[in-house]
Amino acid sequence: MFKKGSITLLLAAILVLVMASASYASPGHGNGNGNSIGNGKGKWKIKIQSDVKTNKLTDVNSHWAEQPVRFMITQGIVTGYPDFTFRPNNPVTKYEAIMMISRASGFDGTADEDLDLDDNVPDWMRECMNYAVEEGILTEAEAERFKGWEPAKRYEVAIWAARAIGLEEDDQTSFEDDDEIPYFARSYIGGMCKNRYMVGYPGNMFQPNRPVTRAEMASIIYRIMLAESEGIYDNDDSDNDSDLEIVSLSPADGSEDVDPDITKLTAKFNMAIEAADDMESVTDGVKVKNVTEDEYIDIDEVSIDGRYLYIELEDSLADDKTYRVTIDEDIIEAEESGENFDGLSGGEWEFSTGDAEEEEDFDIVSLSPADGDDDVNGPDTRVLKAEFSDDIRVISGKDLDNAARVYNKTEEEYVDIESIEIDEDTLVITLEEPLAEDSTFEVTIKADYLEEEDSGVNFEGLTGSDWRFETN
């Protein structure tokens, strides 16, 4: 493992090579020795490949992602086309996204895993899919139903990349379109955005279902691979020549209906920060006021981690109140330049809480036929129903037709399902044929397919042993 300073010199040399190269990139297959700079399970590597040249690409000159694209080509992670184009604005397919992430993680064309993949998976992707499951980038269930030719969505790329690097999850997102982010993807997106591996769009939008372009995919991997370098990568909110300032707040300034149960407030700066004097002065200089009740609330701890200022409260917030956070000037400074932060005053960070709703358990309340029923009329039974405690919906990006399966335990075979539908709070499973007589059946409802419509709470699934019955 290179020391950090050595990595910096290595990256600088590679970037000079990238921009000075004079001919077209060879495809590469992600092979070669390198130095891992990732923090997770994957081996995210920087490789010196002096024979890789990128300058004959005809459609990336002056493109905003020119540097990331050329750099990723030197690593063998992305490739151009035979006509010397990269097509940076084309959507990346799910197959391509998994291939790029896998190559960055160390995929060399082989894998120990040997899945029973669909015959439609192309030969060039089969080993990569095996590797992706082996490394935890995809689950086995995801790989088996993978629609690889479809464009990869932003929330999907966030999940796969976060898994690949073992990124610590963070469910503190505050985008205007948070309600469009699938419940199961929020913590992955939070982690990716916290580390600036992915960024939002104007208007504080994440656009989770927007297809990722080839240029954007190269840039995401580029950010991850260079994250621990010193000064090689300059992103939008990390410019050492700019003034020290806050780039995002959580909860966001002006937000309403904030969950009153939160106990942590976060201010993200555009560069690494530290206490100007000591942390005691920082703690004393941060105030959280309940404006509605005209009283300050108790702070348990104030801490700094890189570009983040964290404010831990002693208790959760009150319902239907307005809060204001202030930060004194000159108590925080930029870590490198020593520039002082001007502080936050007045209504620059203000938000309101909503009503705390008493959480109810989201679960199945009845099954038809009932679990344990040993006298079901098979020839008269073609529809199975699972009623939930609240209205349900299929999780975004999931195929409802794959949400359940019915197994004839006596004959040791799966039963053909005609359709799976949702009727408000009930999952309705219609079989192609009535149930066979004198047989034991088990019904499985898969995890991570259904969620409560109002809250987005994920259904954890129902195993066959939890819904078993016998026909007469």
Automatic annotation (TrEMBL):
UniProt superkingdom: Bacteria
GO biological process: xylan catabolic process
Record GO terms (molecular function): endo-1,4-beta-xylanase activity
Signal peptide (UniProt feature, chain positions): 1-25
Keyword terms, alphabetized: Carbohydrate metabolism, Glycosidase, Hydrolase, Polysaccharide degradation, Repeat, Signal, Xylan degradation
Enzyme Commission code(s) on record: 3.2.1.8
Annotated ranges, domain SLH: 52-115, 172-235
One Pfam match: Big_5
Top EC class for this record: hydrolase
Keyword DNA-binding: no
PROSITE patterns assigned: SLH (PS51272)
PANTHER family found in the cross-reference section: OUTER MEMBRANE PROTEIN ALPHA-RELATED (PTHR43308), S-LAYER PROTEIN _ PEPTIDOGLYCAN ENDO-BETA-N-ACETYLGLUCOSAMINIDASE (PTHR43308:SF5)
Name assigned to this protein: Endo-1,4-beta-xylanase A
Organism of provenance: Pelotomaculum propionicicum
Gene that this polypeptide is encoded by: xynA1_7
